[in-house]
Amino acid sequence: MLARDMGNETGESARDGAPANPSASALRETEFDLGRGALDATGSTAACDATPPGARAVHPVASGIGERTTADHGQRLHAVRSTTVALAAPLSAEDCQPQSMPDASPVKWHLAHTTWFFDQFVLAPRGRAVAPDWSEIFNSYYVGIGPRHARPRRGLLTRPTLDEVLEFRARVDERLGELITGDATAVERDRIELGLNHEQQHQELILMDVLHLFSNNPLAPAYAARSVPASLDAQVPPSIEPIEVPAGLHVVGRDPAAGRFVFDNETPAHRVFLEAFALASRPSSCAEYAAFIDDGGYERPELWTSDGWDAVQREGWSAPLYWSRTADGTRQRFGLTGRAPLVGNEPVQHLSWYEADAFARWSGARLPREHEWEVAIAQAFPKWCRAADLDPRERPTLDPGAHVTRRAHLGPRALLASRVEPGDGWEWTASDYAPYPGFAPLPGALGEYNGKFMSGQLVLRGGSFATAPGHTRASYRNFFWHAARWPFTGVRLAWDR
Q1: Domain tally, the chain
Q2: How far, CA to CA in Å, does 322 sit from each of 139, 198, 334, 336, 440?
Q3: Could you tell me the end-to-end alpha-carbon distance of the chain, in angstroms, rounded to an integer?
Q4: Looking at the structure, do residues 196 and 292 belong to the same domain, yes or no?
Q5: Residue 63 burial by Cβ neighbours in a 10 Å radius (0-12, 13-18, 19+)
Q6: Strand pairing report for 323-325 and 331-335
Q7: Which residue has the higher pLDDT, 76 or 61?
Q8: What pLDDT sits at residue 252?
Q9: Angle of helix 306-315 relative to helix 353-362, nearest 10 degrees?
Q10: Where is the chain membrane-spanning (predicted)?
Q11: Rounded distance, CA 212 to CA 233, Å?
Q12: For position 323, which CATH number holds?
């Protein structure tokens, strides 16, 4: 999902589905309410129980997507596109320009790139592209499209201005709205749906990249105020009740069903044999990771892979990214709501794969393989999986407020029970990111979306507080390289049986 876009490049709608065109100065006045349903407005879906293996998937969405009503398409376009603008609302034009490191991108670039996707893959084939001259600077990694501006130099793109990018968004949205209410083909509607899911991934990227940017400012600015105060008394995490899974044959992955979106890297559904194992009933906590640090975890090479130990020595790691200590030794964490004392029973985040693996070894456990994670989560949290499979208009009736709480915190929820569903932070697995048997990428340049990154990266599962809820499904596969720390990444332990 995310690693390709990060490192190489997870109200009432208008009648035609096009959002209004706010200026840069008006961005800060845009409604910013992560507790409402804007990010919930997704057509993405997956069930806990994988569909039986069937015909090989050749498209990331089923043709049934195109059978939705025009109103549904217009409302979804408006909901997703306006949410992205709302995420930029707390930011100044100056905040939207810088690039904190080569792996991150400026907010202005995210706003433009997600619009370029529609301009290139939906409007251009009809000869209606709004800004074809901008393709080189906002094309992320699609070699088949043409030249691309160097990724580490995105922060130097002072032109187009933020106002011009917002105007670009408005004009593209207007033409998409006309297409939706006009003669859009099923293929075009499917591409729009892919573009909206792609944009929802960038919504999480915006929050990740803003956090990294602000962490480099000595003033430690907050992206937004925390509306739900943390309980500093909640320092002791609850016990773990392992999810026991006997040895056997299981179906994993997804095949597209009518009207149900899945990314091509989730397909096709297929059978795997798993030996008996157990998965932790909750993610590991900050307090548990602090104990690893206090026991010399970053000073014991026997806990680390060779590459991991080299990274510790080279980078000087001694704690997760964004952790620090006050003068009196109190641990604190920097997040989207600013700097605050560390809360012991919150899920630990901003771990590299190397750190998650070393912590698991220190804990007498290991990282789960991705199919173990999928099967165990499906067994333990069927309600969570069913919620991802519902129409967005029905989804809030299941577990109301869960995602609202996460967004109000702009961070993970405290671990208050022994069994905690995924969705507060991405969970590292021990599995290489590789194609499933029978995997077939999309034809043409869109085939570069996932397939070409299936080398040298690791799979993560579950989703974070910043992930669009429709993307938090059991079959969803995120991926990063081993040393990535700025995503919202944590760990859930596993054991052999």
Answers
A1: 2
A2: 31, 27, 5, 11, 39
A3: 31
A4: no
A5: middle
A6: antiparallel
A7: 76
A8: 97
A9: 110
A10: none
A11: 28
A12: 3.90.1580.10
pLDDT, tens digit (0-9, with 9 covering 90-100), for 4-59 = 555 443 333 333 334 445 566 555 444 333 332 333 333 333 335 454 444 333 34
Rg, the chain, Cα only: 22
Q: How many residues does the chain have?
A: 497
Q: What percent of the chain has a predicted confidence (pLDDT) above 70?
A: 80
17 shares a domain with 73 = yes
In the structure encoding, which two tokens stand for residue 385, read together? 């999986």
The dihedrals phi and psi of 98, each to the nearest 5 degrees, come to -75, 160
pLDDT, one tens digit per residue, over 295-341 is: 999 999 999 999 999 999 999 999 999 999 999 999 999 999 999 99
Sign of CA dihedral 458, 461, 467, 471: positive
Band (363; pLDDT cuts 50, 70, 90): very high
Question: Which pLDDT value is given to residue 226?
Answer: 72
For residue 82, the one-letter residue type is S
- Residue 70 covered by a domain: yes
Residues 44 and 115 both lie in one domain: yes
353 pLDDT higher than 70? yes
Last residue of a domain, one of 195, 215, 235: 215
- Domain around 359: 243-496
**Hey, is 57 helix, strand or coil?**
coil
Q: What are phi and psi of 335, to 5 degrees?
A: -140, -170
User: Same structural domain for residues 252 and 299?
Assistant: yes
Token pair in block for residue 162: 């933020």
Distance between CA atoms of 76 and 17, rounded to whole angstroms? 8
pLDDT of 451: 85
Domain match, 355 and 424 both: yes
Final residue in a domain of this structure, among 197, 215, 233: 215
Return the structure tokens found at 21: 């065109």
